[in-house]
Fold this sequence. Notes:
By secondary structure, the protein is α/β, with parallel strands linked by helices. It has one domain (15-251): Uracil-DNA Glycosylase, subunit E (3-Layer(aba) Sandwich). It has helices at residues 15-19, 26-33, 40-52, 89-92, 100-111, 149-166, 178-190, 227-231, 237-251, and strands at residues 77-80, 132-135, 172-176, 207-212, 215-222. The chain has a five-stranded mixed beta sheet, sandwiched between helices. Helix 6 (149-166) crosses helix 7. Residues 68-244 form the Uracil-DNA glycosylase-like domain.
Amino acid sequence: MPHPAAPDPDDDRDYPALRAPGAQDLEILDARLIDCRACPRLVAWREEVGRVRRAAYRDETYWARPVPGFGPADASLAVIGLAPAAHGGNRTGRLFTGDPTSDFLFAALHAAGLAALPYSHSRDDGQRLYGTRLVSPVHCVPPDNRPTPAERDTCRPWMARELDLLGPTLRAAVVLGGFGWQALMPVLTAAGYVLPRPRPVFGHGAHARIEGPDGPLDLLGCYHPSPRNTSTKRLTLEMATEVFRRAARLGGVP
């Protein structure tokens, strides 16, 4: 009886599972990530958004590819979101850049001493993060900002390898919203972290300390800084800044 065929490294569906685990550093990981075409619905949508464009950006060339993480390779704090925005990260090529959500997030990060500037407008705006890296469970913009469970799972190897490479220095993580919280749990389990029982439940200000192979990880929850949350004052700048300040203390960010 013939053996099953080995996965085809050129098969788009297998690309994350085959290419992410072997990346030796974040630079290599990011370079492989931006060539990913594993999810047909997301590929079609990100490229359609890049072709049609919003009127305010009609003269710009959209990135319209998977958007890698942003921040130093020796970060001790990870900030985990959801996915790039259609006319933010999908346009600019940098997570949380170029839209109202990014304006709010970076104002809070700057107030907490974690970002050089209180805004994030473009990849050449001079923005820098201190001891902090932005991470995304899904790297392509999804229609209606809603990835499917299958798309989340297909994309998981990228986040898993990113957090694995950050592991030696990573000491805290702020998760922006329930989607990121749920996406993170299987990644932590697979990486050897011991989750408390019952599992930590997402909430703004939630905090759990999780033992891992490189030491404990302090996990904190924060409402996602979407316009829906910020315009209704469900999340205020003071609330977000306090979570980031607490995470910076727990993570030992200078």
